[in-house]
Amino acid sequence: MRATSLTSDVAALIGHADDNMVLAQRLGEWISRAPDLEEDIALGNFALDHLGVARALYTHAGEIEGKGRSEDDYAMQRAERDYLNFLLVEQPNGDFAQTMMRGLFFDVYQVELWGDLSQSEDETVAGIAARALKEARYHLLHTSTWVVRLGDGTDESHRRSQRAVDALWRYTGELFDGSGQGYRSSWDRTVGDVLHEAGLEIPDDPYQRSGGRRGFHSEHLGPLLAEMQWMQRSYPGLEW
Amino acid sequence: MDATELSGVGVVTYAPTLDLEKARAFVSQVVDPEIPVLTIADLGILRGVSIEDARVVVTITPTYSGCPAMGQIEDDVRSTLAAAGFDDVEVVMVHHPAWTSDWITEEGHEKLTRFGIAPPVPSGDVLCPRCKASAPRVVARFGSTACKALMVCSSCDEPFDYFKVF
User: Which of A120, A174, B2, B53 could cross-link with A126 by S-S, CB 3.0 to 4.6 Å?
Assistant: First the structure.
């Protein structure tokens, strides 16, 4: 299945689901490796929230598509070119500062997105979005607190935080391509305020990468999917 | 021989009448696997019980998107109803309207407090479930489950879980 074989409404749901699926997998990589126990639990819970959103959206997309595909079929049986997630969420965790920065950029976007979709005429989408909106706000409370604390912290935490902004900024532009364009001004304002409070600079370099929503990914998604899918690929239909 | 050929025997369709109130009573007793002092009715995630044809249809709404207990709750609903004699059961998950912690019943709030968990407080102070002191300190935004935060009482110094407003 290529993205082009999906109807636009199904492709939109799959794109949002893939964002959450991929980020859940990334955050799960932190388990047992976070700076302290509380962060380990927090990151694990963020991952669970994203996974839950992905499952609900995949299931709903399958109902609309009407070809009998389940949440597992979408998650486990599609290749890299069929995944429609943004490049931002597939970027490696890096250090803790980078994970928090990626979270900040994505959480602010998701607060806008879910606020919008909670008004959807599709009741199921509206319900999923209304719940995810509260979760995204809570995630944002956490990531923005950390970005300020690290950016405005020691020389070392500041240096690493600025490095994270510089590394990830180029992946933020595509969040506002197409249907997301209306979220740009709020996102710029909120992210700008947090970075300002953290004493961090937005890069001058205007270079932006895009392509995630069309299935063109950075080199990082393939290995992530390989790790996530290998069991189902090796033993199709295997149950726990 | 076909039964209808027997004299005095008409065509009989066996239509069991399922006892809706009994089904509802049993389903209402299913507890949350992570907070076993609360039933799914106390928690407000049980949205409806109905009989459709010869089947019991139970409608539930997830709390958090990632609540890992939903699968267990579905299994528990089935096994509870099976034990009460209801074999044909469908558990439907609905996402709309989204669950909110406002749906936890008053009785649910009391049960939480007795269990040592501070119930959600939409406005005003979170109170220590033990000594009722206000203004606790947040230790971690996530406690023993996704729906709770870990706090420490500023008066008696006891750590406790707080069921977050959601």
Answer: A120
